[in-house]
Amino acid sequence: MFRTIRSKIIVMTVVTLAVLLAAFFCYAVIFRMRTKQLMLKNFAFSLNSYIQKIDEDVLAIEDNSNDLALIGNLFYSTDRNPTITYDVITKVFENYPESLGGGIWFEPYVVNPSKKRTCFYAYRNKDNKVVVDKNFESEEYDYHNQNWYKQIKSQVTKENKIAWSLPYYENIGSNTMMITAGTGIFDGDKFIGMSTVDWEIGSIIKEVSEMKPTENGFHLFENNRIMKDYFVLLGSKDFDYILASTDPYLDNESLIGKSLKNIPWYKDNLKYITYITYHNRKYVPFVKYSKNGLVLIICLPKSEMFKYVDRFAIEMFLSILFICFMIPTLSYLIFKRYIINPIDKLTDIAHKIGRGEDVEIKLEKPEEFAQLALTFDNMTQNIKSITKERAKINSELSIAKSIQLSSLPGVFPPFPERSEFDIYASMTPAKEVGGDFYDFYFTDDDNLMFLIADVSGKGVPAALFMMTVKTLINNISLIGYPPKKMIETINKKICETNKQGFFVTMLCGIINIKTGKLSLINCGHNPPLIRKKNEEYEYLCLNSNIALGVVDDAEFEIFETQLNEGDIIFTYTDGITEAMNDREELFGEKRLLACLNNIKGENQTKEILNNIKNDINNYTNSAPQSDDITMLIFKYQKENSLMKTFSQIAIPENYKPFYTWLHSICDEWKLSDELKNKLDMCSEELFANITFYAYPESNGIINVSIDNSNDEITLKFEDEGIPYNPLEKPDPDINLPPEERPLGGLGIFMVKEMVKNIFYERIQNKNILTLKF
Amino acid sequence: MEISIKNFGISGIYVKAEGRLDLDSAVEYGSKIKDAIEDADETITELVLDFSDITFISSFGLKVILELYKQLKAQNGSVKIKNISEQIKSSFTMVGFDKFIEFE
Fold this sequence. Notes:
heterodimer; A: alpha+beta; Beta-Lactamase; Phosphatase 2c, domain 1; Heat Shock Protein 90; 3 domains; seven-stranded antiparallel β-sheet; five-stranded antiparallel β-sheet; 27 strands; rod-shaped; B: alpha/beta; Transcription Regulator spoIIAA
């Protein structure tokens, strides 16, 4: 699936881009996170600066109040001049631009026992000028009963002189929200009054309210534990009130001064909460405490706060995704155009060339492929000329093969008129031309020479050498030398022609078809197999001589044996025993023997050969043939011409078929008329004797055999009749006058006269009379 | 076996046969000639056997010849064999018949 360059490149690109994509994705996520952290940090920092400003203001207000307290003390302990005191107050205020106004207020009747209220008050008017207001001593205002006065008075002690009032609206002046810091004035341990400084927190609240980091952000400005931090000693009251709120879901005006518990989302540990859920939205709370216990809480909607960050992250991610798809697509397209398409084109051309079509190869771009195409073109031209040469060589090789094969006798039966033997052979070359060969021909009227040989080496050189050897053997064997001289001459001649160091293993047989006498010569070849009629095949162990073409004056031993009717000689080359199956196991001699013995019945040589061929094919199966496979089988099927038998019932009428048989044998053996006559006469006498004397009352079998070996004729009569030796009869006197001569006894006498030798035996119920001529 | 028997003169018989004179045919050969001798009006004294077409003679043939000879001898006659081949004649010689059989 991923074998083509195309698919490999696609896979590589996709994998690379997937990795890149993942890396960018991670980067985007980290970037988004970092940016958010940075934003939170920045926001918290800007919030800090507000709180710091508040802290500074608070300190300034408190200092201002302390200064006023000193002035008040001075006024009370000196001449109690109000004019000078006002001057000093005005001057002090000019040093504290944060203050809205302030004054010094005495307890009832402390300054003047006849005057209940004594106070000094100055404030900053609209032109930012400090002016004095003396109307606060009035009965209507009654400053002793104002909440701020009571609140501060209840908190201050001699040790902790400063305290803060709750925020309140001043109805008289500018109707702004104020908070008042006060410092107690003591005469010894006695509380005699206080100085106060008004701080308009409305402006701070306004400023913070307008600070909207996001469109829908809101914040809560609260004062908590201001007194606790600074006025612990004077009072233990915990202030819990709202200074300002911009909660979009609440009526903020009415909440001012009320408990923080009225804010539904408020919690004490808000500082440690990452976000709150309020009206189905998530808000990030920023909580900051000032030194004097003010707390500023700003809630920012999470989604909106990071809107741009998220949008940017998504945009970045999408653009990377787009690039990731664009790069492989583009690179694939480019790659396809400049590399794959030329390759496809070249492949197509190569296919066409392979089919033998004439194709013009033209590629101009890119440069590398143009070069390749040029090389391709040259190669095609070269291939064409090489192919032409190859074809020529191939056709010559196949001609050589057919010449070689046709040089081996290939027409079967080779001698259709000869029924005395049956011969069959085949050669299956492993390569185009092989080194194995076989041959058979008559060297004279009676002698048939057959041979099977294997030239060392394979291919054309072996085949050429084989042809030489084959011709040489043929020429020399026809001269008419006896086998020993013949083979030694052949060996010598092969040595002379053999300059390349070839050698030939050969098994050669010369059989006299008439007599069945076989001379076998084994020149370093595989041992042949012999099968006597009605017996099993067995390896014929003859002394192996040296292979031909090795030692020029080598001597050769000849093995002689007698073949009888039905005997078979099986010869082969090592291509059979060394045939291998796909597990590289050899066929072997044992298997060959077993295969031969498995062939049932009496077969012609062709059938035997084909049987073995099939066995080898089945064994090797698909394994390639590694060596030539050659077999030659000879079967002797001439009845023993020198030994004939006759068997019949012993009655006179059967003598006629007997002598007909006898005559044909005499003709076949070309015996003289005289001998033929003698045989006839003797046979008739003995046939009649058996008929009349061996079987006087019943009819029995008579067996006659005639043998023509050892230069004499042996005639044998056998019967199973009563013991009877005709030779015991006395001979007639042939010199008697004819009138006195008896009629009997003449026949046996004549027989004795005619034979060279005659003797009678009685063996196992048999009368055996043997006659020799 | 074909046998032709002819009388010649007043006391002669001429026999011509062809084939083998053996176990199979010798008895027939002998009895036919004997019949011819007995059937003749005159006493037969001359028996001529033409062997030109006889190819073989066995001991049975020779035995018949001896019988015929004995019969003619008793009648003071003689047996003559004409046109005999050397080979068949050698059989006669072997058993000493050449001493009393005349060959022409």
